Amino acid sequence: MKVQVDWLKEYTEIDVPTKQLGHALTMAGLEIESHETVDLPDGEKSEVLELNVTPNRGYCLSHIGVAREVSALLKKPLKLSDPITTLSTEAGAVSLEDRISVENLEPELCPRYCALEIENIKVGPSPKWLKDRLFAIGLRPINNIVDITNFVMMEYGQPLHAFDRDLLSGNKIVIRRAKKGEPFASLDGTQLKLEQDALVIADGERPVALAGIMGGTNSQVSETTRHVVLESACFDSATIRKGSKKYGLRSDSSYRFERGVDWKGVVSAQARAALLIKD
Predict the structure, then answer these.
(1) Which residues make Cβ contacts (< 8 Å) with residue 240, sequence separation at least 6?
(2) CA-to-CA distance for 222 and 213, rounded, in angstroms?
(3) Interaxial angle between packed helices 63-74 and 18-27, expressed in degrees from 0 to 180 and rounded to the nearest 10
(4) What angle is formed at CA 172 by the lines to CA 166 and CA 176, rounded to 5 degrees?
């Protein structure tokens, strides 16, 4: 897990040199594998720490998670925003029932699934600050929507996924098991024939994502996308681990779900992403 020191400073005060910070984290069980100075595209420099996060500390696979540790170690207050309150104040609450329905047929494998629709967006390049955050920790900027979901995942530790709403057949989302031999084309170009042990996110006709692992090409966000459905969910760790291994798909999303995601953060991360997209 790579963390940008300047990014950590958004959540807590850090008044010690980065080398000393790294030593404190190592003594707390988050061993520092590397400390590097990254050259950003505009020539600025940024310090980045790479942490060895053990499987039982999945909550540290995010900047906020690491900031909590730093806050406790340095005895500094934690500074976190409240995106849920901000979003509800600015946008209000509008029911999705007339626009898209969500049916969860596997509640034991998906204990929480939240869908939020954002209309009239414009897909394009991300602002400089967002590109710099992703570049510093080794992620390639793609477009503002995808970049925001990646940014929030690295901020909260909660994987998100954006679907092009107009590509969802039947205006519905169904969490279900795959049908035997059901075809699925993942975003990395892999063509799969799924088995019934696979957990999928489907629309009214076919799978649009291998749950918790990777989205599909048939619903991906592109330059022509105007409305998105933003997914934030919790999935069973063992199911994600088995599916990722069986189908040979690894992602930052599956890495986190395999280690457990706090279901309480599902809505906060979704709200945070919605506010960024809205801006």
Answers:
(1) 199, 211, 212, 213, 254, 257, 258
(2) 20
(3) 90
(4) 125
pTM: 0.94
Rg of the chain over Cα atoms, rounded to whole angstroms, equals: 19
Q: What is the DSSP letter of 236?
A: -
List, for residues 110-165, the tens digit of each pLDDT value: 999 999 999 999 999 999 999 999 999 999 999 999 999 999 999 999 999 999 99
Strand ordering across the sheet containing 199-202: 101-104, 172-177, 199-202, 207-210, 214-215
Cβ atoms of 61 and 259 closer than 8 Å: yes
For the chain, which residues score pLDDT lower than 50? none
State how far the Cα of 159 lies from the Cα of 213, in Å rounded to an integer. Answer: 9
Distance CA(166)–CA(69), nearest Å, equals: 42
Question: 6 in helix, strand or coil?
Answer: helix
Name the helix (H) or strand (E) containing 103: strand 101-104
Quick check: 168 and 208 in contact, CB under 8 A? yes
Q: What is the DSSP string of 176-224?
A: EEPPTTEEEEBTTS-EEEE-TT-EEEE-SSSEEEETTTEEBGGG---TT
Distance CA 126, CA 144 (A): 4
Contact criterion met (CB below 8 Å) for 229 and 115: yes
- Say how far apart CA 172 and CA 198 lie, in whole Å: 19
Contact 243, 199 (CB under 8 A): yes
